[in-house]
Specification:
It is a single chain. The longest helix is centred in the first third of the chain and has 9 residues. It is globular and about 50 Å long. The protein is built from 4 helices and 12 strands; from the N terminus they run H-E-E-E-E-H-E-E-E-H-E-E-E-E-E-H. Strand 11 and strand 12 form a beta hairpin. The strands form 2 sheets. The chain has a 9-stranded mixed beta sheet with strand order 4-3-2-1-5-8-10-11-12, with helices on both faces. A 3-stranded mixed beta sheet has the order 7-6-9, with no helix packed on it. It has one domain: Glutaconate Coenzyme A-transferase (3-Layer(aba) Sandwich). It is an alpha/beta fold.
């Protein structure tokens, strides 16, 4: 069975290390916060100006002034810190964030990522994605393996406007995990979702990768 959204997030959470400062993108990546391994302490950063994000609040306990970059209500922790966007992006651009987990519409075999717009569709803006892929030490993409029309999302070259070039370190989909040791190496298939075969992944992927 392919992984569901929570299982994909849980697999991404396995990449967290104690003491990491982590930025979580919109969508599936936000679920990573629910799967931080026992014994691991990470500090979550949101580019709208918060360091030390708490769990999602229970119904009726929401504070409309406390939101993440995806405009979801969140909670604060005793150690939470607040700051303006200039300080937030100084952290990101200055290489102070260890890892970011992002969604994507396309990832190319050379590590290019497209995740901020589809031409002709209304968008709110690029947000912090371009800064994140340029300034964060490790980039993990979590996405469905195929688009709604069945087309591959891990492809030879991105067709949508790029967010960053040659930046992705790991791809986690509902079918498999791909990883590369450095940005000069090709991606390697390193893990399959339970019940998914390597042949099935190959049939649904147009990008070149190593088995």
């Amino acid at each position: 069975m392919p992984w569901d959204r929570n299982q994909m997030a849980a697999r991404a959470a396995q990449e967290l290390q104690d003491g990491f400062y982590v930025n979580l993108g919109i969508g599936i990546p936000t679920l990573v916060a629910n799967h931080v391994p026992t014994g691991i302490t990470v500090t979550l950063q949101s580019e709208n100006g918060m360091l030390g994000i708490g769990p999602f609040p229970y119904a009726g306990e929401e504070d409309p002034d406390l939101i993440n970059a995806g405009k979801q209500t969140i909670s604060e922790l005793p150690q939470s810190a607040y700051f303006d966007s200039a300080q937030s992006f100084a952290m990101i651009r200055g290489g102070k964030i260890d890892l970011t987990v992002l969604g994507a519409m396309e990832v190319a075999e050379n590590g290019d990522i497209a995740n901020w717009m589809i031409p002709g569709k209304m968008i709110k803006g690029m947000g912090g994605a371009m800064d994140l892929v340029a300034g964060v030490k490790k980039i993990i993409v979590v996405m469905e393996h195929c688009a709604k029309d069945g087309s591959a999302k891990f492809i030879p070259a991105c067709t949508l406007p790029l967010t960053g070039r040659n930046v992705v370190d790991m791809i986690i989909t509902d079918l498999a995990v791909f990883q590369r040791p450095d940005h000069a190496s090709p991606f390697r298939l390193v893990e399959l979702a339970p019940g998914v075969t390597a042949e099935e992944v190959r049939a649904r992927t147009t990008a070149h990768y190593i088995d």
